[in-house]
């Protein structure tokens, strides 16, 4: 047991030194209000892009490097590599919602929908107005054959982003009358 002690002592602080995620709450609130006031899909797309820039702003350079690497691996279809890197990110920065959201997307693409749902739940707990996580939750639940459970998640996403592409799914989901 003594041989593990130095490793535990070294690993502990390394995992605990992630700073708090940047506080973009005012800018996010402003962007969400602008999204509601968007006159058309093009305006909404621009504002949505601003939201993603804020969400993708990691707590520090180390976290940003892991986020960027995880997303790059996913873009090259290395889903398992992406999940590995993003798992290290959420271990390092457990209060950074986007780490969980990006890992959920990688899980989704790897067709591990249960794991995606778990990460999306954590994302939404940390950031209740994360449109991507809300719509992602709906999509993952649909893939799991739980379409009725997807409706409130998708409805919340569309309430925040009236021009969300996934809004068309509401016409085909059970229990939704629009």
TrEMBL record:
GO biological process: post-translational protein targeting to endoplasmic reticulum membrane
Any single Gene Ontology cellular-component annotation: TRC complex
Keywords: Repeat, TPR repeat
TPR repeats: 97-130
Xref: Pfam families: TPR_16
GO molecular function: molecular adaptor activity
The protein's name in its UniProt record: Uncharacterized protein
Source organism per UniProt: Salibaculum griseiflavum
């Amino acid at each position: 047991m003594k041989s593990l002690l130095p490793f535990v002592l070294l690993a502990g602080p390394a995992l605990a030194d992630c700073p708090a995620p940047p506080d973009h709450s005012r800018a996010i609130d402003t962007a969400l209000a602008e999204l509601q006031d968007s006159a058309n899909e093009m305006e909404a797309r621009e504002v949505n892009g601003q939201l993603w820039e804020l969400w993708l702003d990691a707590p520090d350079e180390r976290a940003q490097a892991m986020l960027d690497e995880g997303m790059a691996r996913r873009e090259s279809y290395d889903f398992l590599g992406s999940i590995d890197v993003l798992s290290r990110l959420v271990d390092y920065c457990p209060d950074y919602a986007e780490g969980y959201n990006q890992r959920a997307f990688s899980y989704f693409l790897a067709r591990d929908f249960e794991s995606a749902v778990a990460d999306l739940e954590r994302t939404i707990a940390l950031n209740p107005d994360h449109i991507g996580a809300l719509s992602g939750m709906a999509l993952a639940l649909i893939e799991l054959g739980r379409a009725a459970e997807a409706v409130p998640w998708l409805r919340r996403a569309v309430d925040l982003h009236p021009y969300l592409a996934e809004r068309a799914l509401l016409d085909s989901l059970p229990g939704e009358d629009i």
